[in-house]
Amino acid sequence: MSEDKSPEVATPGNIPLRSQLPVYAAGIFSNGAIQLAAVVVPLWMLHVDSSPLMVGIALGSRQILPVLLSIHGGALMDRIGIRKVMIWFSILGAVTPFLFPLFPFFAAVILLQMLGGISAAMGWIGTQAQIGAVMKGEPKYAGRVTFFNRFGMLVGPPATGAAWDFAGPWGGFGFLGFWGIALTLSCLAMPKPVKGEIGSGDENYSRLTVREVLPRLTDYTSAFRLIAIPTVAFVIAVTLIRHSSNGIQTSFYVVWLESIGLTGTMIGTLISASAVLGSVGSISAGWLAKKFTAYRVLVVSVCLAILLIAITPMLGTFVLLLGAMGLRGGFMGVSQPLLISLMSQSSGRQQGKGVGLRTTVNRLSILVTPVIMGAMAEFIGIAPTFYVVGGFLVLLMLFVAFKSRNSFK
């Protein structure tokens, strides 16, 4: 009898391709949507003649709902089922891009950015949760998800920029919309979990009610209690600083590039350049951590990644910009798996809440940075703002490193 059942049992070393591939695809089309929006939305804001402060607010608003609801989203997947929640939010992400050209108003941009942000965030949270639920948490499968994410970042931004150059706003947002449709198809292709399996949802919540969908204070308090663990506190602080530099890249980086005459295709190529060396950085992270310790590698790689985006106004040619963005991607690639690993090792049985907590901090930093840069640019100009914000982030990283040094002795 046991021999009849064995082919259907997924072990860590024997996950069927039909279970793996939809998860890889969901990672590409959820996390990759952030990079696509980073190309098309700034171009749209310039198209409708917005001020620097309005640009900053509009770009930062994409992170409002992820900041508020990432922890809740992880808990919701535990209660209702990962696949089911991913499908709901992927449909939302497929619809919203097509509405941008129809409503060329600042308030509409804010609302649509918020909806697109929560869709992508839930897709990425669900992808990470599926690594544990479907792939049993095997590092090799997690590594493949990261690799395919980089592939999406490499291909998506230039294609989005080219679509904008070819067909204007409808082309750029249309491509983003079809990217969202691909996410929906990826989620639908995921095998339906068997009742009782990890990822299928809590058996006590078989009937969906409004009460089950609403956020719970206990989910948030238990997640934030993890910060009492010194290593978790270090990871959260570094995550905040690291992703603040992403806030620069996804906001006024594109505005600056457009101001010096680069086309949408060239801008997309620059953004995707980070994916090339990012994959190399991810692969080398483990070796570097063993040779120099994760603490030292994180501090150095994050500081260099910030500096390479902060010096953007000094780089007057496409070649120099391409080199800087490629190197930045390499350092960002080194730091990402180390942060994920440290959080995983420190969160114990609260892995889902740990992912939600990191995602909340990620999105908070990307929400705040564009708004701050927009306000500063109104007074001192865009170029000096790169230097001031970048310099502050480097100093903050060094301060965090100094305060946390005893936790890694």
List the helices and strands and how they pair.
Elements: H1 2-5, H2 17-47, H3 52-60, H4 64-80, H5 82-95, H6 106-133, H7 139-189, H8 210-213, H9 217-224, H10 230-249, H11 252-259, H12 264-292, H13 294-310, H14 318-346, H15 351-380, H16 382-404
Helix pairs in contact: 2-3, 2-6, 2-7, 2-11, 2-12, 3-6, 3-15, 4-5, 4-6, 4-15, 5-6, 5-7, 6-15, 7-12, 9-15, 10-13, 10-14, 10-15, 10-16, 12-13, 12-14, 13-14, 13-16, 15-16
**Number of separate strands:** 0
Helix percentage range: over 70%
- What is the domain total for the residues? 1
Series of secondary-structure elements, N-terminal to C-terminal = HHHHHHHHHHHHHHHH
CATH top level is Mainly Alpha
Q: Please tell me the CATH architecture by its name.
A: Up-down Bundle
CATH topology assignment = Growth Hormone, Chain: A
Major beta-sheet overview: none
Distance between the termini: 53 Å
* Protein structure class: mainly alpha
Shape call: globular
Query: Compute the gyration radius: what is it?
Result: 21 Å
CATH homologous superfamily assignment: MFS general substrate transporter like domains
- Average pLDDT confidence is 81
Beta-strand proportion: under 5%
Q: Are there runs of 5+ residues with pLDDT below 50, and where?
A: 1-12
Number of helices: 16
